Amino acid sequence: MGFNIAATATIRSLSMLRVIGIVGAGAMGKGIAQLIAQSGFQVLLFDSIPEVADMAKQALFVQWDQLEQKQKITPHVAATARSHLHVVEVLEAMHVCDLVIEAIVEKLDVKQQLFHQLDQIVKDECILATNTSSLSVTAIAAGSRLPSRVAGLHFFNPVPLMKVVEVINGLLTAAHVPPLLQALINDTGHAAVFAKDTPGFIVNHAGRGYVTEALRILQENVADFTEIDQIMRGAAGFRLGPFELMDLTGLDVSHPVMESIYHQYYEEPRYRPNYIAAQRVQAGVLGRKTGQGFYSYPPVSEAPLLPQETVWQGRIWLSPENPLALDALHDLCERIDIVVDYGHLPAADAVAVVSPDGEDVSTCVARLGLNPRRTIGIDSLNACHGHLTLMLNPATDLKLAQGLQLRCAQHGMPATLIQDSAGFVVQRVLATIINIACDIVQQGICSPQDLDQAVLAGLAYPFGPLAWGDKLGASRILSVLRNMQDSTGDPRYRPSPWLVRRAQLGLSLLHVAER
Asked: Does the active-site annotation cover 166?
């Protein structure tokens, strides 16, 4: 290779990072190597199985040829990247490195052993970074003779396309290390966000609510997984429903992360995993990679089930209990051409529509003295967003509900019927996501701005969770959570102090107190 680099003083500037080692040439290691070599750094790539590293190099050369042909990178960048990528056959070759990034198996003891080995090889000034997604950086650093030089550098797959990287401070990480890693990431064209060393860091922590709450809704038999996915795509704007996402990621990957974060937080109810996912892992029903997950792959085409054609008769009476819902529900009635009953109580031929925030329909029926057979709930959070959620109570006349569902569909408003639940589907999932995000910033894990940026780039949510909370109204999200907690008694819904205080004061969830 021809490297002859003398030991340097403590590395404090990007210009002092000349050679970067990567240990592990799987999907993550290969992606990191591509990104860093394209940015002009010398890269040493090592894998304990030499053939894997050779195959990664060959694949990257093909990738650079294709990117050059498509004019995604210049011929100069492609040539530089090829000349800067070097496969090494022994770990000892890392002795010339200024930074080593490990991207090996997600097992604490294996990572600790690697860092112990690197301690005997690299110079003391060399920085060691772990690409762990769910393990403690501090615990990994415990395998190093110099834990002050160890930090987290969490990339996302596929690395070249996922434009955010988490820079994680271990408990003993030296102050100069994170800014240097930030400079490196920014030089690659990606965005660096800072996080404290806490379970799940930012993205894996913030993403818990989407899948764990969906699994809980499925467990409670509120709706089946296809309906939950339809609602979260159509009504909330997610690219993939939670069950589609778990199938894509693979439950063998996502369920252990759920369990890891839950146990690392000493059984914090907000992160509680679900037996449904555990059972599927045990059965090997993991998702796309096994051909069968919540869905079958390739998909089995099924004719959609349409509600029976029931002629709608009568009017809709709108409960005045939730003033925030009335405008949306009035707009809905206009769109589906239904007369509104403005009586103090619903007429005999009217269907009573309630729109509770965080409560179920049965509670509203009992409190308002309504006829349960003719009472239906509508989630006003998404009443005019292209997909409706209609909630039954155990006594609702199903034909009546199907008639309303058909009427909505005939006017371009597809609707899903679900069973009684405190918080519908969208309310439950979004309130959980926003609440967890609030608690992340309450703990000082990262800044509000870094949280929203990381989630937008790392999870592709329609909005950053805190900005989403502002859009829906912090006070309303707080009401949903408090009502769900009262209705269920489940501490998973207890509101974060960050949310409570900003809702009380009318502040943005992105607001940071002056110090």
From this structure: yes
